Every structure is written in structure tokens, then in C-alpha cells.
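Morning!

This is the sequence you dropped in the shared folder:
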Amino acid sequence: MMKTRREFLKASGCLAAGALLTPSLSRAAKVKNVGIQLYTVRKEMLADAVGTLKQLAAIGYKQLESARSDKGHFYGLQPKEIKKIAGDLGMTVRSGHVHIDNNWQRSVDMAVEAGQSYLVCSSLPSQGQTVANYQRCAELFSKAAEACKKAGLVFAYHNHDYEFDKAGGKVLYDILIEESDPKSVMMEMDLGWAVLTGNDPLTYFKKYPGRFPLWHLKDMDRAKKESTEFGKGQIDIVKMLKNMDTSGMKYFFVEQEEYPRTAMESAKYDFDYLAKLNY
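The structure's back. C-alpha cells below.
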């Protein structure tokens, strides 16, 4: 009887352990709805936009973010044209990188025609690593966001590394967040540049909840200070993905600017890396 009881307790313990493990396994999620910043394949898009979009769709990408190029906002395609091409391929032109300039309203109108949800300012509209300049930019963002809101778009700003410099004892990036309209000016956090400058994106997600609906998901080589394929740098991709809800993230875009082989091979490598993850 004692042996039977020990076996029973042992079996019960295993069942209990299994019950404890099962919820965590059920919570593990696969990465879905993967987006890509088309700057990743910029040369390919300029050479053959339609063919490149077909290749990205075949890999499995679903969300697209365009970037201003020598051929315009959509690599030589018209807004409605890229919208249809992407739609036919099962993709959505979700966002686009542009500059704030005298043609801002035209950029807004084109984004609407392309079916975008977001319009992103890709770099500071005026230069100068001073508190006063960042205050001016924050005010300009609020005004630019008004035009976006009227058109049914969400405005966001995309960071690099220099925004995390300090001036007057203040992180300049924080000025952009704190002195722009919190209801209409969102941020697209480039996770790679944030981490490379020694900052923790999670700290920002908690400090400014709801301000980061978009991400650039990238891995970075600290030594070279450049992007690399997922899993080959120092960015904890899984840790970032586990904090999507904290961020309020709606969409993320894979971005890689340097490649060991070709841009398209890296785009596929990064997608396949994400497809294998549980987070």
C-alpha cells in the first residue's frame, strides 16, 4: 500500500506540475501580422516596385510602411495604385514615412488615397540639439497631427539615436513626447536605436502609456552600430514582443538597413526568425 500511495502521490505531483505548466504554454503566442518598412528593400522597390511587393507577399509580410524615395512616397507608384497592388497581394499599406514640409497637406492626401492609417514624420523638421528646437518641433508635430486627424489619420514621429541626447539636463526625446499633444501625436519607437543608445523602451512604454502604437523592430550590432539580422545582435526581440500590450503597440515593421547578403534574403531571414518564436 505504501508503494502504491507513493506512486499515487508522485503521479498526482506530475499532474499538478502539468496543470501549472499548461496555462503558460497556452499563453505562448506566435508572431502574426508581420509588417516591413520598405526602406529595408529600398533599392529593390526603386528597381521593380511591383515585383518586390510580390516577393514580400510570398514571404508572408502583411503590413507595409512606405518611405519617401527619389521616385516619391511610393517608389514611382501612385497612392491608389500601390493600395490596389498591395490589397490584391493580401497586404495593407498601413503607414508611410514622409517629411514635414510645405507640401504637408499633399502628403496627408496621398496617405489617405493609399489607404494608410498612420502618417509618420521620419526625421526632425528642423535641426539643432537644443531644448528650444525640440520644443518648436513638438509644437509643429501638434499642428501636423491636426491635419492628419481631420483626414482620419494618426500622426507619429520616428526616432533615431540623436533624440536621446541631453540638453539642459533633459532628454530631448522626452521633450517631443511631453510638449506635443498627447491625444494626437504618437511615437513610432525604433527599438534598435533606443536600445543602442542605452535606453530601455519598456521604461518609455510605462512612463508614456498609449503613445507608442507603432514600432520598428530591428536587431542591432553594438560594435558596428548598425542593424543586423534578428538574433545576431544585442536586442532581446522576445522581450520586446512580450511587452506589446504595455506599449499599446498596434503594428510593427521589420527594418534592416545593412545586410550580410541581399536585402530580400535578410527580409526572409527576419520573417522566418519571427515565425519560429513563441513569446
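Headline: Residues 1-29 form one domain.

More detail when I'm at my desk.
O.
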